[in-house]
Amino acid sequence: MALGRIGGVIQLKIQILGMGCPKCRQLAERAAEAAARLGLDFEIEKVTELAAITAMGAMITPALAVDGVLKLQGSVPTVEQLEEMLN
């Protein structure tokens, strides 16, 4: 997993791809909880523009990308499963 350096601080960018549906919001909440449990320095970015979502390779939402790399699409994993993805 790649970490980006933003303003001198190592930070993980978690991107939630979707139009803002309830499952997208649930994925964002669970991803934030998973990253916090792991003690990661992170930011959540919500990508809602269809062109940007498809440009990242997602064909089904909700989808999750970490530092620009698509990790999953079409499901909302548990917090524990997301911890495994982020760790």
Write a brief structural summary.
The chain is an alpha+beta fold. It is 34% helix and 31% strand. The N and C termini lie close together (8 Å).
Question: How would you describe this protein?
Answer:
The protein is α+β, with helices and mostly antiparallel strands and 87 residues long. Helices cover 34% and strands 31% of the residues. It is built from three helices and five strands, in the order E-E-H-E-H-E-E-H. The chain has helices spanning 22-37, 50-55, 79-86; strands at 4-6, 9-17, 42-47, 63-66, 69-73. Strands 1, 2, 3, 4 and 5 form a five-stranded mixed sheet that branches. Helix 1 crosses helix 3. The chain is globular, with a radius of gyration of 12 Å. The chain starts with a strand and ends with a helix. The model is unreliable at 1-6 (pLDDT under 50).
Number of domains: 1
CATH hierarchy: architecture: 3-Layer(aba) Sandwich
Biggest sheet features: 5 strands, mixed
CATH topology: Glutaredoxin
Q: What is the mean predicted local confidence, pLDDT?
A: 91
| Rg over C-alpha atoms, rounded to the nearest angstrom | 12 Å
Summing up helix and strand content along with how strands pair, one would put the structural category as alpha+beta
Uncertain stretches of 5 or more adjacent residues: 1-6
Q: Classify the beta-strand content into a percent band.
A: 25-35%
What's the total number of strands? 5
CATH homologous group name: Glutaredoxin
3D shape: globular
How much helical structure, as a percent, in the residues? 25-40%
- Report how far apart the termini are: 8 Å
CATH classification, class level? Alpha Beta
Please trace the helix and strand order, writing H or E for each element. Answer: EEHEHEEH
